[in-house]
């Protein structure tokens, strides 16, 4: 059963219950008030009769029969009947149309009627009567006077009321069904349209993923907005993936083009040994560029799939950083760069030395690439209670505030043409981020005064 | 035939230039969009080889700008992207052909020839015939009375320019601009020297190339008037 169907059913069910309740109450009140009117009429008739039952000269009990039926607020008149029993239980007076054998013996039902009179409902002459039975003392004997009014008109009236109420109730139920259907459609409509719209989204399309419509209801707006923000994140991931594929393909195609072109042009005719040597040198460079790229892509994909196995052991980070700095000594000399290292004498941390070395190497590489000739690169290693912080600071950065935010993205390059000369593909810093993340550490970058920039990472103890 | 290569990958442009120069084209190179813009504005090229991914501006923008300025020379795009969408974008930007990296040098040469042929309106004509001379574009050789002439790529290019404008005066400047690289030192004497070599190689038909004093050269199909 659909949600919409269940909702309709529930609305209808509870609506019907709420509807039938007041109808029943109303019917019973009308019935009670009509019965009360009948009883009042019966009592007033009886009172008059009782007062005048023995007013004849012979003081024999008799009944005053009115010629016209008693008229209440009902359509037809009420048929009256009455009889009087003497203390011996013999009928001494009765209304004309009442036959002797029809008279009921009420002593079982009302063994001790009061002088005020007691009401009882009986069936006589094939119809329902309301009787008032009163005890009357006369000359030391207890006479029993019975007065009755036909209940038929009242029952008829109630019957027609029942019928009217019933048909009204059925009509109301029909309306209720329509309303319930309408209401459940209205409630489920936003869900359906949301589902349709989500289904219609095409991740392959050029446009950004988002819901095009926006409902006016506040609650739905909240829902749509949160769906939109999820879509936006999804869009970002899809977009990043697209970029990654196209950037990777570009980074692979460039060295391949160089290799193919160099080899094909070279082989078109005989050349001198010097020429061949030159071409081979270019090829060697391009091959190492490809190897470097392949290694980094492999590291990244292993990071992505958590397949990088770390061997965690006690590592002295001061020695590790010193080793890394020593290895770039030649390049420092070439570009007249100096490195200032500030650190305690020893910082021992539980980590994978290979991975941390790669992090430090990549950050060092990045700093040396941009540091202007003759400048100083400042490295700082701090040991705290809960973490170890490594930072490296250099000048020559031309990154804008927005670019700094994207610096850890894959294939991001601040300046395309400058990087070509230094040969970076823009993967080093994203590897740093991945490796630090895998060690549950944090990584960051800050722009300082002038063109100085500071990269840092922290590893928890 | 003068070609401009716009490419920021150094080895690519170096070897393209070497290969094309050996094929007899005169080749200029530019590394950035700005540089390429200036060179196209100042010089006259028969063809531009344009890399799509350039620092500064992308090749498509550059190509579109040139077309808007009314530059008509053929443009061959080089790119690392081979999706249909990218090809369409390239051609819509006004490029004449599209080559996906890494390409074969032979294919590049064939496409260059096709583009240059289309430009000179020769469509399917492989040969250019003037009097006893026959110039074969695809084999880049010239026959004189059935004999293949042993000429250098430069001489071939000079002859090509003259043969395309048979009967017209061709200035030294035009020859210089069409045959030599822009970066090389301008020297009108080099033109004269090369034309001299060419005359020598033509032998009996050397009188086809007439020197017009103060103006340049003119190639005549029947110099003796017969």
Characterize the structure shown.
The complex is a heterodimer of chains A (461) and B (226). Chain A has ten helices and twelve strands. With 461 residues, chain A is α+β, with helices and mostly antiparallel strands. Chain A has three domains: 3-159, Beta-Lactamase (2-Layer Sandwich), CATH 3.30.450; 218-302, Signal transduction histidine kinase, dimerisation/phosphotransfer (DHp) domain (Helix Hairpins), CATH 1.10.287.130; 310-460, Heat Shock Protein 90. A five-stranded antiparallel β-sheet of chain A has the order 2-1-5-4-3. The longest helix of chain A is centred in the first third of the chain and has 49 residues, at 3-51. The model of chain A is unreliable at 417-422 (pLDDT under 50). With 226 residues, chain B is of the alpha/beta class. Chain B has two domains: 2-119, Response regulator (Rossmann fold); 127-219, Winged helix-like DNA-binding domain superfamily/Winged helix DNA-binding domain (Arc Repressor Mutant, subunit A). Chain B contains eight helices and twelve strands. Chain B has helices spanning 10-22, 33-42, 59-68, 84-92, 105-119, 153-164, 172-179, 188-202, and strands at residues 2-6, 26-30, 47-51, 75-79, 97-100, 127-130, 133-136, 141-144, 147-148, 169-171, 209-212, 216-219. Chain B has a five-stranded parallel β-sheet with strand order 2-1-3-4-5, sandwiched between helices. In chain B, helix 6 (153-164) packs across helix 8 (188-202). The two termini of chain B are 31 Å apart. Classes of the chains: A alpha+beta (461), B alpha/beta (226). The A-B interface holds A 246, 249-250, 253-254, 256-262, 264-266, 268-269, 282, 285-286, 415-417, 420 and B 8-12, 14-16, 18-19, 22, 31-32, 53, 55-56, 80-81, 101-106.
């Amino acid at each position: 059963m659909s949600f919409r169907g269940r909702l309709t059913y529930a609305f209808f069910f509870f609506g019907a219950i709420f509807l039938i309740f007041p109808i029943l109450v109303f019917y019973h009140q009308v019935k009670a008030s009509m019965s009360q009117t009948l009883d009042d009429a019966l009592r007033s008739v009886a009172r008059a009769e009782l007062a005048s039952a023995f007013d004849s000269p012979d003081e024999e009990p008799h009944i005053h029969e009115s010629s016209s039926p008693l008229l209440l607020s009902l359509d037809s008149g009420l048929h009256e009947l009455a009889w009087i029993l003497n203390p011996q239980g013999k009928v001494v007076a009765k209304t004309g149309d009442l036959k002797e054998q029809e008279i009921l013996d009420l002593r079982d039902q009302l063994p001790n009627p009061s002088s005020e009179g007691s009401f009882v409902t009986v069936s006589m002459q094939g119809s329902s009567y309301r009787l008032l039975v009163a005890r009357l003392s006369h000359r030391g004997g207890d006479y029993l006077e019975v007065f009755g009014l036909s209940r038929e008109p009242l029952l008829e009236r109630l019957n027609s009321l029942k019928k009217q109420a019933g048909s009204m109730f059925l009509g109301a139920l029909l309306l209720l069904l329509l309303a319930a259907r309408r209401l459940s459609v209205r409630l489920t409509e936003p869900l359906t349209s949301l589902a349709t719209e989500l289904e219609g989204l095409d991740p392959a399309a050029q446009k950004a993923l988002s819901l095009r419509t926006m409902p006016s209801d506040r609650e739905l707006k909240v829902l749509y907005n949160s769906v939109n923000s999820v879509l936006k994140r999804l869009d970002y991931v899809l977009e990043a993936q697209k970029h990654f594929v196209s950037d990777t393909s570009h980074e692979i195609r460039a060295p391949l083009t160089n290799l193919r072109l160099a080899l094909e042009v070279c082989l078109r005719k005989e050349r001198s040994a010097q020429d061949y040597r030159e071409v081979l040198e270019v090829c060697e460079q391009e091959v190492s560029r490809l190897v470097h790229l392949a290694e980094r892509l492999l590291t990244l994909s292993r990071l992505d799939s958590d397949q990088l196995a770390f061997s965690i052991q006690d590592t002295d980070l001061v020695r590790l950083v010193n080793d890394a700095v020593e290895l770039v000594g030649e390049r420092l000399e070439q570009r007249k760069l100096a490195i200032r290292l500030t650190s305690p004498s020893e910082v021992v941390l539980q980590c994978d030395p290979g991975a941390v070395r790669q992090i430090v190497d990549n950050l060092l590489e990045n700093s040396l690439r941009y540091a202007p000739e003759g400048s100083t690169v400042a490295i700082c290693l701090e040991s705290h209670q809960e973490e170890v912080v490594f930072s490296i600071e250099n000048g020559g950065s031309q990154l804008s505030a927005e670019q700094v935010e994207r610096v850890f993205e894959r294939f991001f390059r601040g300046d395309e043409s400058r990087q070509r000369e230094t040969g970076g593909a823009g993967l080093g810093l994203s590897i740093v981020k991945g490796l630090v993340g895998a060690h549950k550490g944090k990584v960051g970058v800050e722009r300082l005064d002038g063109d100085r920039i500071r990269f840092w990472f922290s590893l928890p103890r | 035939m003068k070609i401009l290569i716009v490419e920021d990958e150094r080895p690519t442009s170096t070897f393209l230039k070497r290969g094309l120069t050996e094929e007899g084209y005169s080749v200029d190179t530019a590394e950035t969009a700005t540089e390429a813009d200036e060179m196209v504005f100042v010089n006259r090229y028969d063809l531009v080889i344009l890399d799509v991914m350039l620092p500064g501006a992308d090749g498509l923008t550059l190509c579109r700008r040139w077309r808007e300025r009314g530059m008509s020379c053929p443009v061959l795009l080089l790119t690392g992207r081979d999706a249909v969408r990218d090809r369409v974008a390239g051609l819509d930007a006004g490029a004449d052909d599209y080559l996906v990296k890494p390409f074969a040098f032979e294919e590049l040469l064939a496409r260059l020839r096709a583009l240059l042929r289309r430009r000179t309106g020769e469509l399917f004509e492989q040969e250019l015939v003037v009097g006893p001379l026959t110039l074969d574009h695809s084999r880049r050789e010239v026959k004189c009375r059935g004999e293949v002439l042993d000429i250098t790529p430069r001489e071939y290019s000079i002859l090509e320019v003259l043969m395309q404008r048979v009967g017209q005066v061709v200035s030294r400047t035009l020859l210089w601009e069409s045959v030599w690289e822009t970066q090389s030192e301008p020297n009108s004497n080099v033109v004269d020297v090369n034309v001299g070599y060419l005359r020598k190689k033509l032998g009996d038909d050397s009188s086809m190339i007439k020197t017009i004093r103060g103006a340049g050269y003119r190639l005549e199909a029947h110099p003796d008037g017969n």
